[in-house]
Amino acid sequence: MSERLYDEVRKTGQVEGTRMRTVLGHFASGVVVITASGPDGPLGFTCQSFSSLSLEPPLVSFCPARSSTTWPKIREVGQFCVNVLADGHAELSTAFARSGTDKYAGVRWTPAPSGAPILEGVAAWTDCSLEYEYPGGDHTIVAGRVHDLDSDASRAPLLFHRGVYRVAAPSPR
């Protein structure tokens, strides 16, 4: 820990949010869109905090902001699909991060087994049901039970690193 950061934490007992975002932005994360089939049509939002949680039972986790207006609607549905965005999806990520717009305008998708949208061209998708939910500061920690999943090894994943989108090369297979 840098001396400056240590002094900041020692004096205030807390790290400033903008500093935390800058420092932790050095960790590259994948970008996903969580989707569901709601009673009034498809739902979705962009999320960076996604990871595999457990193989037995098969669980994944993600953390929507507590300010999200879409997550409560998806929670009510109880089933969702995690779409791992790929090269060429930066605009899609931005569109699904906005509130109050038609996020699906011009977006092609097919239904997952649960009915949740699988967005066209994703690197991978995971069809889930809500298993657990916990408070996590200004976010909610969600664990979803995986029921089905698939991937396209030819698609390079979209990454977010130091405040910008980047693309990782697909692994040779």
In a nutshell, what does this entry contain?
The protein has 4 helices and 12 strands.
Kindly list the characteristics that best describe this protein.
seven-stranded antiparallel beta sheet, alpha+beta, 173 residues, three-stranded antiparallel beta sheet, 4 helices
What does the secondary structure layout of this molecule look like, with pairings?
Elements: H1 3-12, H2 17-24, E1 29-30, E2 32-38, E3 41-47, E4 50-54, E5 59-62, H3 71-77, E6 79-84, H4 90-97, E7 109-111, E8 117-119, E9 124-136, E10 139-151, E11 158-161, E12 164-167
Antiparallel strand pairs: 1-11, 2-3, 2-6, 4-5, 5-10, 6-9, 7-8, 9-10, 11-12
What is the strand tally? 12
Low-confidence stretches: none
Q: Radius of gyration in whole Å, from Cα?
A: 17 Å
Helix-strand string:
HHEEEEEHEHEEEEEE
Our count of helices gives 4
Q: How many strands, which pairing sense, and closed or not: the largest β-sheet?
A: 7 strands, antiparallel
Give the termini distance in whole angstroms.
39 Å
Structural class: alpha+beta
- Major sheet: arrangement of strands: 3-2-6-9-10-5-4
| Amount of beta strand | 35-45%
- How helix-rich are the residues, as a percent range? 10-25%
Mean pLDDT score, rounded? Answer: 88
Instruction: Note the overall shape.
Output: globular
Describe the structure.
The protein is of the alpha+beta class and 173 residues long. The radius of gyration is 17 Å and the shape is globular. It contains 4 helices and 12 strands. The N and C termini lie far apart (39 Å). The strands form 3 sheets. Strands 3-2-6-9-10-5-4 form a 7-stranded antiparallel sheet. The chain has a 3-stranded antiparallel sheet with strand order 1-11-12, with no helix packed on it. A two-stranded antiparallel ribbon has the order 7-8.
